[in-house]
Amino acid sequence: MQGIVLQLTRFGFLLVLWLFVWAVVRALRNDVYAATGSRPITRRPRPRKADARRARGSARFLVVTHGALANTRISLGSQPILIGRAPDSTLVLSDDYASERHARLTPRGDDWYVEDLGSTNGTYLDRSKVTTAVKVPVGTPIRIGKTVIELRP
């Protein structure tokens, strides 16, 4: 009886050890990819036809999906949208990782372009750092500090 208990204890310890190693490797991987702004190679799900039809429409709203202002919705017009901590910004962020004048969304025809305004921590469009004015597809996340926003039809 003692032999079985000893073997089960050994197996349990080995299982807990492997779970710990897996958790450490996963945390390191997330930290490395978050610091570089790149992402690991993963299989992407195939877009559904409904998503493709929705993405073709022009954006009408700017929606905050993550962060302190989650579920905030701003109607888009013909004016640029200034994003940052400055009180005169269109979208005022209370995020320590956002600059006073962090980024700007500018309309050009039916398309919207995001540009970083020399921020300290950068602006990311779907995990890619924005260095020049970049076209923003509908539904693509824009990360500014801890805040994530998207254009929606």
UniProtKB/TrEMBL annotation:
Q: Where is the FHA domain?
A: 81-130
Q: What is this protein called?
A: FHA domain-containing protein FhaB
Q: Which UniProt keywords are present, listed alphabetically?
A: Phosphoprotein
One Pfam family it belongs to: FHA
Query: What stretches pass through the bilayer?
Result: none
CDD domains to which the protein is assigned, alphabetical:
FHA_FhaB-like
Report the gene name: fhaB
